[in-house]
Structure prediction request, 230 residues.
Amino acid sequence: MHLLYADESGSAADPNQIHFVLAGISFFERQTFWISNELDRIAERFNPAEINAIELHGSPMMGGRNMWKPFPKQDRIQAIKDALSVLANSHLSNRIFACVINKAKVSPHDPVEMAFEQLASRFDHYLGRLHKNNDTQRGIIIFDKSTYETTIQGLATNFRTLGHTWGVLRNLSEVPLFLDSRASRLIQLADLVAYAIFRFYERHDDQFYSIIADRFDQEGGIRHGLCERL
Prediction:
């Protein structure tokens, strides 16, 4: 089983932001425990007595908001980099899938719908490639609870029955699941990945993106894991 943990960065409704990003990280099920433990070690630096009270969340960490306010900026930025490095240094089967959308360029289409269609179909295509290589796996997409839950659930059901632009989803075992990010380090890591990609496109800041840039799904020199609608 491959688990795609996904989250967004940027607001689909904010006119002051150019881009919307939906990103996910695919983990083979036996990789998740190790990744979570490594992320716990990073959180432990900030509250050793209660590490579960520390949520690794890109925008608050960068801006020093909420629980991150007491900590020096350089420590917060280093924690983001270290968390992304956990992914960068992990097993090669752990892959990023993401869609970056210039909202004005796709208007009046809904960027959330467009991004999810790309994310789901590319993950499904990856699982299909594994099957062709005699490694048959099913997949589940796991999202942070968000205002897009109803939209995404409906889309996923339609994709499995009526189809999407390129066919139907054949390799997903269930409609997307939704978790509270506070309970999942892997959702938190997906948030950091989405944030790194958003800052790269929105702010031309590659300090985080450069750490994970080679972890997008690719095969034969073709990068399947990144969709750009710019």
Summary: The beta strands are 2-9, 19-28, 95-102, 139-144, 177-179, 218-219, 222-223, 226-229. The chain has one domain: 2-229. The chain has a mean pLDDT of 91.
